[in-house]
Amino acid sequence: MRATIFNTIKAALESIKDSNNECVIKHIDLFNNQLTYIETEQPFNTPAVFIEFQPIEWMEQLHGVREAVVRVNLHIVTDSRVGTWSEAVSRLALCDTINANLQGIGAIDAAESVMNALTLISSTTDHDFDELQDNIETYSCHVTDRSAYK
Question: What is the pTM of this model?
Fold first, then answer.
């Protein structure tokens, strides 16, 4: 189910294009504390989005079906050295653009597992950054996982 959620979010992020029809987000990956270990981390282009799954509490149903409310943090990483300080608002506008593309998306995978509408539930603005700013947008969706259905 997490792969379905990840791939659905990734596809929505890849659909965000600039005026030259190029993808605005230059790197999309699973979150692994990339900014904590920036000196040893594989290089990545910005803007980047790292997808972090919060712990999932599953509720078992009958016959191997389970449900959960899944929370996902999107770490929207931008380079503060690009442009001037007055352009900082554009980094915040990127969060709004991402939300406009993600709000309400869902999916059904091959096992007929369902990811219901993704909804933004909180935003955390990074106010203490050096070169890279990490704004965190937290989304929630209800899922029904039928991958173990018998």
Answer: 0.91
Token pair, residue 21, equals 């029809």
Q: How many CB atoms lie within 10 A of CB 75?
A: 20
Q: Which pairs from 44-48 meet CB under 8 Å and 24+ separation?
A: 44/77, 46/77, 46/78, 46/79, 46/82, 46/132, 47/76, 47/77, 47/78, 47/79, 47/91, 47/94, 48/75, 48/76, 48/77
Q: Please state whether the peptide bond connecting residue 47 to the residue before it is cis, i.e. omega within 30 degrees of 0.
A: yes
pLDDT tens-digit series, residues 89-137: 788 899 999 999 999 999 998 888 899 999 999 999 988 887 888 999 9
C-alpha to C-alpha distances, 111 to 16, 145, 148, nearest whole angstrom = 28, 8, 9
* Structure tokens given for 62: 């009958």
Phi, psi of 139 (to 5 degrees): -115, 160
| DSSP count for the chain of H helices, then E strands | 2, 8
Instruction: Tell which phi-psi region holds residue 21, choosing left (phi > 0), alpha (psi between -120 and 50) or beta.
Output: left
Given the DSSP bridges, would you call strands 66-79 and 107-108 parallel, antiparallel or unpaired?
unpaired
